[in-house]
Structure formats: structure tokens, C-alpha cells
Design brief:
By secondary structure, the chain is an alpha/beta fold. It is built from 27 helices and 24 strands. Strand 21, helix 23 (about 635-650) and strand 22 form a beta-alpha-beta unit. The termini are far apart. The structure holds glutamine and zinc ion. Zinc ion binds near residues 453, 663 and 665. Its EC number is 2.1.1.14. It catalyses: 5-methyltetrahydropteroyltri-L-glutamate + L-homocysteine = tetrahydropteroyltri-L-glutamate + L-methionine.
């Protein structure tokens, strides 16, 4: 039997650059400090370094067209000329101005909200809508289609980048987001219609691009179809059938690597195996169990691309364990390519930039660069035998063993506590109605009580002081003094305005997850491990590597200081366990549910300490609860069950008279409303201003039992909402929900806003609440 040589492929590499060079270049260009030529040459420079790097690390198949100036879904929209009419594009190729208008709005002043989503504001055409890319923290620009949508070739980027690499002596495999996933990720405009009905019009553009690539010399194209790991209708399966029959038929011929990731093919497997594609990539990190089935069912002439290295996390792989799985396939004569499970877009770039990390922990980690090197080691072992890379394999085994047994990871006390299955831990003492009576007596709030979500403007002064403090330019005392002054000003100012439940302002927090990660054990922070969130925006998620404990109180002193300045209640302000979990790189050696439960106990201790210090109101933010939903419906219940239980563990250590708030800033609750109710918070604040209170229907249909603060102030925009606008929203809310359960608050935190508009908007908000109380 012929043994085929095993190749290493990467499916996509981070674009932002090891030092976030792309961010710098984009922001200079947007600010008008540099011209298009400078931007484009910086981008070309990054691409050439990235290609060369992957090749030098040992990748045989290097991708092109995985780079993007902003977003790869937007690139596809440009490629097929699906520019929404509002951007006034008539032309031939989509130019930079049109491209960035779609990304950021035509005035280019897209605003980020407290959780980092950009929203266009002000005059001009707003940006296209941004949504999360499957279950990652990357955001893409959702395509928008009309029933009479016309497609035409609007960009030759895929061809240009292929040729660019070729001119550098690097043969690449261009990447395209596949046509069916592209349509399924889109939204319709106007009368609702089935997006898949556009497929026949879309395919000719793909065929044209494939032909141009084939003529230029490309032999393979990577077609990403991540929707194949989601629940698909029969129509969608038929669309796949049609699309790939058409696209494998183009002349001159080109081979397609159908690429799936973020989950298993599950019940779509049969449909996928029918497709006449030349290769199939499967994710064996999220769905290791699919290997046997796919390997036995795929056609023998099909190349199997095995996603054996985690493209989305930061841990070193157990290389010998991977070899145990892949060797039998190779021995049996299968054509095998090994690859990361998904694009490496979601991993930080290079571990070697982390000079400050504890060496023991650093030895457990692998970023994008290290992952390609791991694949190269695996390929050598598969092609030449394990003996050829013995040292590397032994090192991998040693790292894996060290991570399993390190006392840094294992804290028996934490493990024992999280294993405590006493259901009472997740129950408040009394039911909501009883708690409500006690809390009313204690807080004595007016009808339509006013509050804010937590953060106040993080001014340039605060950010500078934090940076200076980090670099040792100002000492702890000076930094603390500045934060205390800001907090005191915020308290005085809220009192003067007449807000009912105050916040301390979160001036001491860099980020709502990072702050807690820095105070909990089991987390480590990096210096340069940036991951693209959208466009030029990057995040540096904490790495949760071990059992999570809270060595000492994290927020109590700030709360105590703030409460000492006023007689009105100041909310204790915490981030919930599910949000901390979903916004971190988390350990892969135990179920996420277990990790979440550990975080829940740690935050519970903080809740109890805040109560003991005297806090009457404590808010536990769960901004990321919804986005943690699994890709498959069948897995939702399980996730929601442990996520809600974790929240309840966090919230249930307090007495009836302590009022627990939660906050979630998004606008889809219909399908999870029962779980939201099961969280059993006393008050929930949500984002509603832009949906004009429509989303409250979910709460009223379900008869949500507790109190609700529907956001009346869109914090994504510097525009100051008028009193009338806010009373109109409150009246709409009062028609849907019992008036005595309504709170008045903004959609989310105000950290990205400036003071003048914040003051004006909150003054109007307090006036609106007063008018509602007066029944006007
Ligand atoms: N308390 C946080 C803040 O106000 C909540 C942020 C969020 O929901 N994303 O900034
Ligand atoms: Zn929010």
C-alpha cells in the first residue's frame, strides 16, 4: 500500500501582526495621518512576513486571502459586490472608502460600547451590523441582502493576494468563505425571504473567482463552510449539494478543501460526504469522536485534513496522543493533512514575546507560531517515525505531565468545595415575593427608581494614570488617590443629580473581566497576547490555567469608600462567573462547567463580604451569558443549566434583604427567557433603547416575576437622548410590564462615553423618571 506523505496546513493566521502593526496602520489612516498607500504597504509587509513565517516553521500549505484589512466576511461582501445601496457604491471595484464606510459608518466614527462592540453614530450612513462569529469573541459584519439582490465581482483580493505571495516565491492555498455559509450568515432587508434563494445568483461570482485563481496557477482553494457544524434545514443541505456540484465543475479545474470547524458535522455528515469536493477538513478538538466515522465513510481519493491542534486555545498539545490517533490512518494509506482545528485567528501570535511569564506556566502554552511548529513536529513523526523527533515528543510529554500534576493548578480545597452538590447552595432563603417585601422596607425607593449600570467615563486622564502606574511612573498611593478623587466626584455628582441607587464608577477597573482575573488565583495575564475582536480592536483575554480561588476581597474597599460618602445605597459591582469564563482562555483539562462553578464560589465569597460590609444592593453582571450558547440547539439546555446554576451559587449566599441585580446588554431573550427567570435575580437591567422596548415582549409573555430595568439611553452614541424620548420608552415599557416593577437606567455602562454627554443624558433620565412618577 502506498503511504502518502503527510502535509502540514494552516487554515488562517492572525492578521493583526505580532506588535499589532495592522492596528497602528489602520488607526493612523483613519485619523488622516497617513494615506492609503502607507496603509496598503503596511498590510503587504505583514502578509509577506506571515507567509514566510509559516513556511519557515514547516507549513506545507500556507493560506492566502486569510488576511483582511477589517473582516473576512466584509471582504466576501466586497468580492461578490453585495454592498448595501445606502453606501452609494456604483462602481466597479469596491474602493477603500466604501469598504471602511461599511465597516465603520460613512463618517468613520463607529463607537465602542462598554463590552467592546462598535456602533456607528452621528450623521451619515451607519456601519453594517456587527455580530459574533459563531461562538468566538471575533465579530464580523453581517451581510445584508434584498430579495432582488444583484451580485457582481467587486474585488479581486483573493487573486491579488495569491499572486502577491507567488511573486514572493510562496505558493499558497487561497481561502474563501463558502457561498452557503456566507448566505446563512446574512440578514434580509425588506420583505422577509429565504437567503438561500440567492444562491444561483451568487455562484457565478464564486465560479469566476475560482477560474481566475486556477488560471493564475492555484491548485487548491480552501472553502470555509463553518455552518456545516450547525443545525441545518433540508433546504440548506440541498443548497450545499447544489453549490458544490457547480463549484467543483468549473474549468480550468481547481480542487476544493471543504473546511469545517468549531464543532462536529453530526447529522450533516451524510450530506457532506455526498459533496464532490476533493478534500474535507474536520475539527477534532471540538469533536474528536467524528474521526472514526469520517475516516471510514469518506471516499478513499479524498484528502482528509485533520484539525488536531486547538486553533482557539493557548495550550500545548499532547503530541504523542495525537500521533496515536493519526498513525493508523496514515498506515492504512489515507491521504492526510494535519492542521489546526480552525483558523489561528483566535489565538495570540507568539509566545516568545511573553518575557514576563512564570516559566512553569509558559511551558504549558502554545500560541499560533508554536502551534505551527507543533504540527511540523507531528508531520515529521508521521513521515519519518517518532524516533526522528524524539526530543520534541519527550518535551511535549513532560509539559503535559507537568500541567496535569502541578500544585499550581490543583487546589484540593477549591476542588472539594466545587464538588459540594448541596442544592441549597444555589437557593436564596426565600422566594422573590418575600424578598421583595423585605427589600422594599429596607431600601425605601421611589417608583421608577433610577440607577446606572456601573462604569463612568474612563477619561484620558484615568487611562494615562493606569498606564503610568503600570510602568511604575506613579506609585500605588498616588494612583489610589486619583481613583478615590474620581470616585468621590462621581458620588457627589450622582447625588446632586438625584439618582436613587448609586455606583462607585469602576474607575479602578481596566476591564470587567481582567480586573477580577487579576485578583483571583488560577489566572495569568500576558503582555502581548492580543487577539482580534473586530477591525483594529484587540483584546488580551486572561488565561485561566488552574483552580480558581479568591485569596482576599477584591472590591470591598472601593465599595466601602464610596458608600462612606453618601447616605444613598451604592451598588456593589461584580462580574459574574459565566462572563468571566466566556471571556477568558480557559483550561481544557476539565469541563467548562466545572471551571465555571469554581469561579462561582469565588465570586460568591465576594458577594457575601460586600453584604457583611453593609451593601444593600449587589449587581452581578452576566454580559456574556447569551453568547456562550452552544452552536447546536440540542446542547443549549445543558449549558443553560450549569450557567444558571453558577450564577445562583454566586448570588445565593446573602440574606433576603440584600437585593441582587444582574445586567445583560443584548437584545435577544425570547429563546432563553426561562433560563433568565431561573437565575432568580431581584432586578435585571437589559439593553432595550434601540429595540424600542420590543424585546420586553419576551419578559411580559413569560410573566417574568422580578423587577426589570429596560435601558432607556443608548450608550453607544454620544447623542443625548431627550426627556421626551425617554419617557416615551418608559411608557412603552409600562404598557408591557407592571409599573411597580420597572427601573430606569441606561442600556449599559458609560465607560466609553465622555462626561458632558453623560451628565446631560443622566439628568434627562432622572427627569423622565420623575415625570413617570407624577403620572405625566
Ligand atoms: N458594570 C459594567 C459596566 O458598567 C457592565 C459592562 C457590560 O455589561 N458589558 O461597565
Ligand atoms: Zn452591558
Amino acid at each position: 500500500m502506498t503511504r502518502h506523505t503527510v502535509q502540514v496546513a494552516t487554515l488562517g493566521f492572525p492578521r493583526i501582526g505580532p506588535k499589532r502593526e495592522l492596528k497602528t496602520a489602520l488607526e493612523a489612516y483613519w485619523a488622516g495621518k497617513t494615506d492609503a498607500e502607507a496603509l496598503l504597504s503596511a498590510a503587504a509587509q505583514l502578509r509577506s512576513l506571515t507567509w514566510a513565517r509559516q513556511r519557515d516553521l514547516g507549513a506545507d500549505v500556507v493560506p492566502s486571502n486569510d488576511f483582511s484589512l477589517y473582516d473576512h466576511v466584509l471582504d466576501l461582501t466586497a468580492m461578490v459586490g453585495a454592498v448595501p445601496p445606502a453606501y452609494g457604491w456604483r462602481g466597479d471595484r469596491v474602493d477603500l472608502a466604501t469598504y471602511f464606510a461599511m465597516a465603520r459608518g460613512s463618517r468613520g466614527d463607529g463607537q465602542a460600547c462598554a463590552h467592546g462592540h462598535a456602533h456607528a453614530s452621528g450623521e451619515g450612513t451607519p456601519a453594517m451590523e456587527m455580530t459574533k462569529w459563531f461562538d468566538t469573541n471575533y465579530h464580523y459584519l453581517a451581510p445584508e441582502f434584498t430579495a432582488d439582490q444583484v451580485f457582481r465581482l467587486g474585488s479581486t483580493k483573493a487573486l491579488d493576494e495569491y499572486l502577491e505571495a507567488r511573486a514572493l516565491g510562496i505558493e499558497t492555498r487561497p481561502v474563501l468563505l463558502g457561498p452557503v455559509s456566507y448566505l446563512l450568515l446574512g440578514k434580509t432587508r425588506g420583505e422577509p425571504f429565504d437567503v438561500l434563494s440567492l444562491l444561483p445568483r451568487l455562484l457565478p461570482i464564486y465560479a469566476e473567482v475560482l477560474r481566475s485563481l486556477a488560471r493564475a496557477g492555484a491548485t487548491w482553494v480552501q472553502m470555509d463552510e463553518p455552518c456545516l457544524v450547525t443545525d441545518l434545514s433540508d433546504e440548506a443541505k440541498a443548497a450545499y449539494d447544489h453549490a458544490y456540484r457547480v463549484l467543483t465543475d468549473v474549468t480550468p479545474p481547481i480542487k476544493l478543501m471543504l473546511t469545517t470547524y468549531f464543532g462536529g458535522l453530526g447529522d450533516n455528515l451524510e450530506a457532506v460526504l455526498r459533496l464532490p469536493v476533493h478534500g474535507l477538513h474536520i475539527d477534532l478538538i471540538r469533536a474528536p469522536e467524528q474521526l472514526a466515522q469520517v475516516a471510514s465513510a469518506a471516499r478513499v481519493d479524498q484528502v482528509l485534513s485533520l484539525g488536531v491542534i486547538d486553533g482557539r486555545n493557548v495550550w500545548k498539545a499532547d503530541l504523542n496522543a495525537v500521533l496515536d490517533k493519526v498513525e493508523p490512518l496514515v498506515a492504512a494509506g489515507r491521504r492526510v493533512v494535519i492542521a489546526p482545528s480552525s483558523s489561528l485567528l483566535h489565538a495570540p501570535i507568539d509566545l516568545e514575546r511573553e518575557t514576563g511569564l512564570d516559566p512553569e506556566i509558559k511551558d504549558w502554552l502554545a500560541f499560533a507560531v508554536q502551534k505551527v511548529a507543533e504540527l511540523a513536529t507531528l508531520a515529521r513523526a508521521l513521515n519519518e517515525g517518532r524516533g526522528a523527533v524524539k526530543a520534541a515528543l519527550d518535551a511535549s510529554t513532560a509539559s503535559v505531565a507537568s500541567r496535569r500534576t502541578s500544585p499550581r493548578i490543583n487546589d484540593p480545597k477549591v476542588q472539594a468545595r466545587a464538588a459540594d452538590a448541596d442544592p441549597a447552595l444555589a437557593l436564596r432563603n426565600s422566594c422573590f415575593e418575600i424578598r421583595r417585601q423585605v427589600q422594599r422596607g429596607r431600601l425605601n425607593l421611589p417608583a421608577y427608581p433610577t440607577t446606572t449600570i456601573g462604569s463612568f467615563p474612563q477619561t484620558a486622564g484615568i487611562r494615562k494614570a493606569r498606564a503610568d502606574h503600570g510602568r511604575g511612573v506613579i506609585d500605588d498611593a498616588a494612583y489610589a488617590r486619583l481613583l478615590r478623587d474620581e470616585t468621590a466626584r462621581a458620588i457627589k455628582w450622582q447625588e446632586a443629580l438625584g439618582l436613587d441607587v448609586l455606583v462607585h464608577g469602576e474607575f479602578e477597573r481596566n476591564d470587567m473581566v481582567q480586573y477580577f482575573g487579576e485578583h483571583l488565583s488560577g489566572f495569568v495575564f500576558t503582555k502581548a497576547a492580543w487577539v482580534q475582536s473586530y477591525g483594529s480592536r484587540c483584546v488580551r483575554p486572561p488565561i485561566l490555567y488552574g483552580d480558581v480561588a479568591r485569596p482576599r476581597p477584591m472590591t470591598v474597599e472601593w465599595w466601602r469608600y464610596a458608600q462612606g460618602l453618601t447616605d444613598r445605597p451604592v451598588k456593589g459591582m461584580l462580574t459574574g462567573p459565566v462572563t468571566i469564563l466566556n471571556w477568558s482562555f480557559v483550561r481544557d483539562d476539565q469541563p467548562r462547567s466545572t471551571t465555571c462553578r469554581q469561579i462561582a464560589f469565588a465570586i460568591r465569597d465576594e458577594v457575601v463580604d460586600l453584604e457583611t460590609a453593609g451593601a444593600a444592593v449587589i449587581q452581578i453582571d452576566e454580559a456574556a451569558l447569551r453568547e456562550g450558547l452552544p452552536l447546536r440547539r440540542a446542547d443549549w439546555d445543558d449549558y443553560l443549566e450549569w450557567a444558571v446554576e453558577s450564577f445562583r451559587i454566586t448570588a445565593s449566599g446573602v440574606r433576603d434583604e440584600t437585593q441582587i441585580h444582574t445586567h445583560m446588554c443584548y437584545s435577544e431573550f425570547n429563546d432563553i427567557i426561562q433560563a433568565i427567570g431561573a437565575m432568580d435575580a431581584d432586578v435585571i437591567s437589559i439593553e432595550t433603547s434601540r429595540s424600542r422596548m420590543e424585546l420586553l415582549d419576551a419578559f411580559s409573555d413569560y410573566r417574568y416575576p422580578a423587577e426589570i430595568g429596560p435601558g432607556v439611553y443608548d450608550i453607544h452614541s454620544p447623542r443625548v437622548p431627550t426627556v421626551e424620548a425617554m419617557t416615551a420608552l418608559l411608557k412603552a415599557a409600562a404598557r408591557k410590564l407592571p409599573q411597580d416593577r420597572l427601573w430606569v437606567n441606561p442600556d449599559c455602562g458609560l465607560k466609553t462615553r465622555a462626561w458632558p454627554e453623560t451628565e446631560a443624558a443622566l439628568a434627562n433620565m432622572v427627569t423622565a423618571a420623575r415625570l413617570m412618577r407624577a403620572g405625566e
